[in-house]
Predict the 3D structure of the following.
Amino acid sequence: GHPNCWRQAALQAALDAHGRLDILINNVGTNLRKPSTEFTEAEYDQLCATNQGSAFHLCRLAFPHLARAKGCVVNISSISGQTSDNTGVVYHMNKAAMDHMTRYL
């Protein structure tokens, strides 16, 4: 099914089990180490969907429940959002986006 269905199901399971949502911890990441000029569009899209899209959309779905409980979000990122090395440009971009999203929240 669509990733949003899985997110909604996980959120609902937590709400059913605990009655409210006090904290959301996003700890997600995958990488494909290759030169930036060799990434296909599909590879780029998959990394972005996993590394930043998943956390963004789960935050969006969880927000009303977290607001009611005065809860919080913890996003696990990486030093790669702040530095450059040989781990791949798309991963670095995704982690920088996660860092900025965290500051915005």
